[in-house]
Every structure is written in structure tokens, then in C-alpha cells.
Automatic annotation (TrEMBL):
Segments forming domain D-isomer specific 2-hydroxyacid dehydrogenase catalytic: 5-320
Single GO MF descriptor: hydroxypyruvate reductase [NAD(P)H] activity
Annotated D-isomer specific 2-hydroxyacid dehydrogenase NAD-binding domain residues: 110-288
Taxonomic lineage from the root: Bacteria, Bacillati, Bacillota, Bacilli, Bacillales
Pfam (any one): 2-Hacid_dh
Keyword tags: Oxidoreductase
PROSITE patterns: D_2_HYDROXYACID_DH_1, D_2_HYDROXYACID_DH_3
One of the record's GO cellular component terms: cytosol
Record protein name field: D-glycerate dehydrogenase
The organism of origin for this protein: Bacillus mesophilus
Family membership: Belongs to the D-isomer specific 2-hydroxyacid dehydrogenase family.
Amino acid sequence: MKPKIYITRKIPDSTLQKLKEHCHVTMWEEEETPVPRDVLKEQLKTVDGLYCLLTEQIDSELLKEAAQLKVISNMAVGFNNIDVEAASEKGIMVTNTPGVLTESTADLAFALLMATARRIPESSEFLRTGKWKAWAPMMLTGQDVFGATLGIVGMGRIGEGVARRAKGFDMEVLYHNRSRKPDVESQLGVTYVELEELLKQSDYVMILVPFSEETKNLISEKELSLMKETSILINVARGGIVNEHDLYHALKDQKIWAAGLDVFEQEPVSLNHPLLSLPNVVVLPHIGSASIKTRIKMSELAAENLLQALAGNTPQHLVNKELL
Ligand code: DGY
């Protein structure tokens, strides 16, 4: 008998067809609206596998009645939306999709850095709203990227991708990570420093650590106060890592120069959020991995993880390895 699975959002058709070959599939058909929690809870009572996105909070309360659930396959590399401990207690495998999104996310991170440094969205708006009267020496001037110092907080796969791009711009790259990476240092010519040193020296600080209790509010008032007045903060990881209240004040009081944000504590971010009122903030709707090819690869990898688990094998990207 085919296993039953629930998919929490419309996924690419080719991936859906593949899943249908092996499973009885029920899918939340909406593209832009997340499945309501009570619908998901009801579905979880009877399915063997869950295919979900980072928009679903899979917590212990939701898992309570998931009597036959064997696997939660998250179509994302981050899995802070899932209570992994609660899943492990019930013997439910949790999987994610690392690797396939590395380069697209590094591209976006670098694009956001450049857009913020050179005030690209603001300049475009300036032209479109008829404010451009004449070329002027200091009109819409920004910060240089070429030859500047970049500090990467979290040297994982995406951090390495960003460092490779930065080297093409002749940047000095500093990094801070839980553990030092001598191989990466010699291959990419990057330098390990303590977080405090990184914040003091960098022209650009890029956040690339996963969200956890340990990294929550990692960048708050004290850390922001160590940055230069001309420096720029870029966050493409998760919202809660940077304290948004403290960031707002640092930007408003010109303690730092600008910020580029692809992620927020609450997503979608409210249009009334104070950060959106500042001209020196470039905002994006969590599109780090959003290239067509990469999103298809992520959907396929999430499907493979799910099918492997349901076939009784160890999925390639098992998060809770303690289950082995
Ligand atoms: C992830 O995969 O965790 C990103 O945030 C979305 O691609």
C-alpha cells in the first residue's frame, strides 16, 4: 500500500508527479497562502509523511496526534521552524535541503550588499518619482565595495560562497564561526577573528549563521555600537538573529550607515514596521534561494529525502541523526 503524505503548499509539477508515483498525496493547493494550522493538524493525524516549508511551525502541540508520521521533510536548509527534539522523541525523522541553494543564496547576499552600498533601490525610486533634476557631484553617493573589508558571521557553505565572490572584488575577508576552519582559511585567504574584532574592523558585516537559542539577538545594541559609522549590516539568514528594535535605533541615530535585510523576525514583515520607514534600509521578501533552477532543485531534494525515509532508508539529509 502506498504511504500517505501531506504537502503544505503548491510545489513544482514535476516534483509533485514524482511524489504521486510513490504516495497518496494531499496538497494545500494555494501558492501564496500558508495552510491554516487546524487544517495541518487534522491532516497530521493520518499521514506517514509531511512535506513542508519554513512558513509552517511544526511544534510539539502539532505533533501530539501525528500517530503514524515517520518523516518531516522541510524544503529549506534552515529548520528552526521545526521542534526537532519533539520530533526525535516520537521517532520522526526531520530532513532539510542543504547544498543545492548555496550559490543562489550567495549571489543574492552579494547582490543585496551591493544594492545597499550603492543605494540602488533608492536611486531607482528617485528617478521614477521625478526627483532627478540634474547630475550632481554628491547625489546619491554610497560606499565602495571593491577593496573594502567584509566580515562574515557564520562560515558555512553560503559563507564560503560569499567569500569567493568577495575575493573577486579584492575585499579583505574576515570571518567568525563557532569553530575555526583552517582549510577554508588557506583555500580562500580569509582570516578568523573574534566577533568583537570583526564588528570593529569590517565595512560590511554579513550574517550567515543558523537561527537557534544561541544565535537569537546575536547582534543587538552592544554589537551594533562596535560597528563603524560607515559600515553596513546584511542579514540573509534568519530574522531573530539581529535585534530589530536595536537595529532601527542604530540606523536612525546613524551609528551605522545602512542595512540590507532579506529576513525578518515576523514574516511577512508588517508594512508599518519602523525599519521600513528608513531610507537607509534595503528590504527583500526572503528570496535568498529564489532562482527558478534552485527552487526546483530544493523541491526535488525535499521529495527525495521524504521518499527515502518512507522506504525505510536513511535520507541523505537527515537532521536528527540521533535516530540512527
Ligand atoms: C532556507 O532554505 O533556509 C532559506 O531561508 C530559504 O531558501
